[in-house]
Amino acid sequence: MNEMKLNKFYAQEFADSYLLTNSSGEHVFITKEEYKKLLENPGLCAEKTINLLKSRFFIFNNLDENSFSFIYDIKYRTKHSYLENDTLLLMVVPTISCNCSCVYCQVNSRKTINSVNDMTLRTAIAFCDFTFALPHKNIKIEFQGGEPSLRFDIIEFIVRRVEHLNRIYQKNIEYVICTNLLNLKSHELKILKKFNIAISTSLDGCREIHNRNRPSVYSKSSFDSLLENVELARKNGIYPSALVTVTALNLHRMREIIDIYIENFFESIFIRPLNNYGCAFKNQNVYYQLEDYIEAYKDAVLYLIDRNLEDEKNIREEMFSIILRKIFSPFNDGFVDMQNPCAHGQMCLLVKQNGDVYPSDESRMISEMGTDDLHLYWKMGNINDEDCFVTMKSKRAEILKNGRLENYKECKDCVYSPFCYADPIKKWYIENIAGDEYESYCGIRKDLFQFVFEQVKNADEKKIALFRRWANA
What we know:
By secondary structure, the protein is α/β, with parallel strands linked by helices. It is 42% helix and 14% strand. Strands 12-11-10-9-8-7-6-13-14-15 form a 10-stranded mixed β-sheet. Strands 2-3-4 form a 3-stranded antiparallel β-sheet. Strands 1-5 form a two-stranded antiparallel ribbon. It is globular, with a radius of gyration of 24 Å.
């Protein structure tokens, strides 16, 4: 007998409809009436609804169950194929010295320039050897700090040695430096240009806000120095990207900040909430309620959409774009911080200035909040030790064991779980160090996903075209 059968799905009620999702990353909106029929008997749904649900793998004919299962399995494995991927974000810290005193600093940056803060030549050589001992074919090396440009000689040494060794290994190597751009000189520009090193920087708002959020130790105005060097980089064919860290100071000025990004010709903006690590954990003056962040974020994105559509600007918000990729693409989006199972320790590694290896930048931040064993929990090994890869493998297995949303009580039945991400490091941090006073494990995620799906659901053709452009950027 030919009858319709339900595939497993998740559901959430919206104002006038239901959002359905499944583990292959498909989604669909149907009316409340059709949803009721679906649960009672899928065959009762309107023909248009049946065809839509079949095309998105929510229902199938029982006679076609084998072919349905075969295709659905391919879709699922395609969406989760990153665990078999040979791509790696490899962060490295040349120095923890810094020339800024950011109010929300999440790492143990030192405001004094001292060699004890720096990576040694021995460790820099070990890092290069470590890079090519890893199995990944595609590696993005990201220089972090402190302020990495304060030891640009170490950066240059690593890049030159990696390029030399890569004549043998033939890996696909990319570079990016995360910098406040206060220390950019002609030699640095020459090396950045020669080796195609991208720049990621921070712009937190107007002169007053930026200087208060990110005061420079040496420069009178970090805002002026930043924009001067952004322009200098562009004249040399290097186009920095930028993010804004939201604090209590700039929370209600997002539209103004977007205008500043547009005026300074940035093509994207990453509106990043505070991370409750490092100095930010102690500085309560920068905090706000998470619901206030969500409201500010929504208003900012809606304003950004209007500027794109009405004023014909070309600037996207990065987090919104990442989620759009998760919704629209049959493939994985590749953003290492937002994977399920967790990709930390496999698609993402960080090497500190002393050679210690961590599965993510956040786990490094936790390690710098104390010296006891509790705060060193996420250390995977040290690149100067012979047994580094053995200890890395052990810690990665632990991350993977605890890094699946289906193992989290609060997540396993969530409608957004096919698009969301597991974060065992944050979960451990809340349970063992921070407590749940600042935020829950879910934090802003559910509100964020709901906002994006609402925008997709209600979008007209022009908006959908814009969203697809953002998703493909």
